[in-house]
Amino acid sequence: MKISKEKKSLRSRKGFTLIELIVVITAVAFLTGVVGVNVQHTNQQTTIFNAANKALADLRYAEEVAMTTHRRVDFIVNQGANKYEVKYHSDGTYVKSSTSDDDDLIVQLGSGISSGVTITSSATGNTLSFMEWGEPALNGATFTGERSVARFNSHMHLIIVESGYAYLAEEVGGSGCGFTICH
């Protein structure tokens, strides 16, 4: 009878077995790894979105400059150099940045705050122009529908429609338009 009391007292002790500790530590390590990967993915998505959002603002600014100066302005996407720039069509001089009168509007992607961001295509060729009254044109002619001015990292698009309205969209594939509007 003495043996059964000892067994009973050993079983009634509070604590964790080695196996229970190993299972908990493994689960915590796994969850930490998953969260770390998701945070890294979210940071990259934010960087892409911020770069695309800046390009959207610069595109709208190019249209505004064309309307206020009554001059044709070109929004030029250079996929090979991973940059875009805004120039006056008549003489090729750069439009000054909206934030500084000293800086030409040239945006180089892939370094600094846009590290890891690349322009992967453009459905407007390389140059989208805004005519003297702000209407968008390709090769000097207006167009119908919508066009991707630049695609960033193969899924975030800067879209412009024939009215001059520009927006960001993510490529979602499938049937239909294949885009979802980003807010």
What fraction of the residues are assigned to beta strands by DSSP? 25-35%
- Radius of gyration (CA) equals 28 Å
Binned, the helix content reads 25-40%
Which outline best applies? elongated
Distance between the termini: 74 Å
CATH class: Alpha Beta
Record the strand order, biggest sheet: 3-2-1-5-6
* Mean pLDDT, all residues: 80
CATH topology: minor pseudopilin epsh fold
Descriptive account of the structure:
The protein is of the alpha+beta class. It has a single domain (19-181), classed as 3-Layer(bab) Sandwich (minor pseudopilin epsh fold). The protein is 34% helix and 25% strand. The strands form two sheets. The chain has a five-stranded antiparallel beta sheet with strand order 3-2-1-5-6, covered by helices on one side.
Short description:
With 183 residues, the protein is of the alpha+beta class. The chain has helices at residues 2-11, 18-69; strands at 73-78, 83-88, 106-108, 119-121, 127-130, 136-137, 146-152, 156-161, 166-171, 179-181. The strands form two sheets. A five-stranded antiparallel beta sheet has the order 3-2-1-5-6, covered by helices on one side.
